[in-house]
Amino acid sequence: MIIPLRVDVPTWRRPFVNWVLMAVIICMSIAAFYDVGLLYDMAGVEGGGLTQNAGLWPVYAVSSSFLHGGWVHLIGNMLFLWIFGNAVNYKFGHLGYAGLYLAAAMVGGLAHYGLDGRPAVGASGAINGVMGAFLVFFPRNNISCLFLMYFPPYYFIARRFTLSSIWMILFWIAWDLFYLAMGTQTCVGHWAHAGGFLAGFGVAILCAISGLVKPTEDEQTLLQVLKLRR
């Protein structure tokens, strides 16, 4: 298991929107832990499965992203949102970041509903969108990671290392694409991850091309790294 710990992105603006999103997600998730009705209502669950009213799927795609299936699910997603979301909030500004997050949540949720068909909860589709935007604007910034591996019953490996964000993020999305290509159905929403990532990546590419979001003098976008733009 590889766990990101910190990104090397100097910021000069406090990421208030990301903090508010995290607070709302944590509060809503904890409330749903103890209220199954709330969980079903926000995840679009009807009769033990996903509601057949496809017109409501965009609503449930967003609302379900504020819920989680347990403490490990919640803590893991909040760690990723804290690490990548703070930097992307700084780069996109408050309104831009809120729009990016909600768009990725919706697209990721709709991809899951349309291609998987099961109800689901979790912010990982939106978070993958945030990671996609991070890849566009901070491809060369380093990520401090922790590698963990457990060999029961006694042997445990823990190593800390630093990796360029382009390789770290591509590794994570490749993991999802591998499972999708294999057709393996797991408890993880791989379609939500892929859909959210494409939404965030696409929005960020358009912002970079249009100049709506600009790198600072000491930053390079993915387009500049790939020599597609000066």
Entry summary:
The chain is of the alpha+beta class and 230 residues long.
What does this structure look like?
- The chain has 230 residues and is an alpha+beta fold.
- It has a single domain (13-142, 179-225), classed as Up-down Bundle (Rhomboid-like fold).
- The chain has 8 helices and 5 strands, in the order E-H-H-E-E-H-H-H-E-E-H-H-H.
- The strands form 2 sheets. A 3-stranded antiparallel sheet has the order 1-4-5. Strands 2-3 form a two-stranded antiparallel ribbon.
- A hairpin with a 2-residue loop joins strand 2 and strand 3.
- Helix 1 crosses helix 2, helix 4 crosses helix 7 (190-210) and helix 5 (124-137) packs parallel to helix 7 (190-210).
Q: Helices and strands: which structural class?
A: alpha+beta
Named CATH topology:
Rhomboid-like fold
The domain count comes to: 1
Known CATH architecture? Up-down Bundle
Uncertain runs are none
Number of strands: 5
Mean pLDDT, nearest integer? 91
Major sheet: arrangement of strands: 1-4-5
What global shape is seen?
globular
CATH class: Mainly Alpha
Backbone CA Rg: 18 Å
Going by CATH, what is the homologous superfamily? Rhomboid-like
Strand content: 5-15%
Query: How do the helices and strands follow one another from N- to C-terminus?
Result: EHHEEHHHEEHHH
Largest sheet: 3 strands, antiparallel
